[in-house]
Backbone:
């Protein structure tokens, strides 16, 4: 009976219970570092009629983490067809661009952070991200690099906090935001 009441409450909330279950499954597999099984869940989710732009964005991001650039580009094309002006389409387009065309430029920013040349990080980030901080998973990386710049910690914490508010059900954003908040409190 609990499953039935869960299904009824999901229907009343306007959510597709099958889609919600696939999203939960993908998050659980990803948390267990089983990207292959998370990918299967997201691919099944993207095939559902009720899937949305955020679902395709999640699939594209996962494909990028797995190193499947052609798969991510395919997810981006599907997303741009489904919802061309969405935040999800813009975020995934930025992530695909950074993973392909600007891969070396982003690696240079990481090198600046590793070598303690934080004074050059803001300018380097502006070259890679001319439109400002990205909204997707690359936004986490952006803010973590920004935290290495002089006076960048507070802005990084605030940016990560905004990302966690925009993606409340995605633990990647929430955990990173909490980490940076506690790190700022100890310094």
Residues:
């Amino acid at each position: 009976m609990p499953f039935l009441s869960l299904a009824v409450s999901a229907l009343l909330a306007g959510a597709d219970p099958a889609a919600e279950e696939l999203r939960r499954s993908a998050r659980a597999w990803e948390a267990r570092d089983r990207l292959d099984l998370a990918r299967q869940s997201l691919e099944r989710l993207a095939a559902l009629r009720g899937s949305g732009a955020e679902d395709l964005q999640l699939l594209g991001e996962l494909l990028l983490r797995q190193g499947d650039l052609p798969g991510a580009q395919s997810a981006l094309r599907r997303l741009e067809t489904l919802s061309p002006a969405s935040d999800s389409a813009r975020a995934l387009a930025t992530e695909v661009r950074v993973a392909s065309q600007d891969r070396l430029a982003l690696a240079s920013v990481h090198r600046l952070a590793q070598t303690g040349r934080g004074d050059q990080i803001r300018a380097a980030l502006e070259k890679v991200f001319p439109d400002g901080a990205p909204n997707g998973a690359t936004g986490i990386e952006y803010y973590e690099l920004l935290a290495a710049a002089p006076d960048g910690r507070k802005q990084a914490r605030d940016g990560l906090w905004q990302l966690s508010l925009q993606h409340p059900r995605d633990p990647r954003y929430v955990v990173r935001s909490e980490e940076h908040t506690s790190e700022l409190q100890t310094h």
User: Anything to note?
Assistant: The first helix runs from residue 2 to 12. Confidence is low (pLDDT under 50) at residues 1-14.
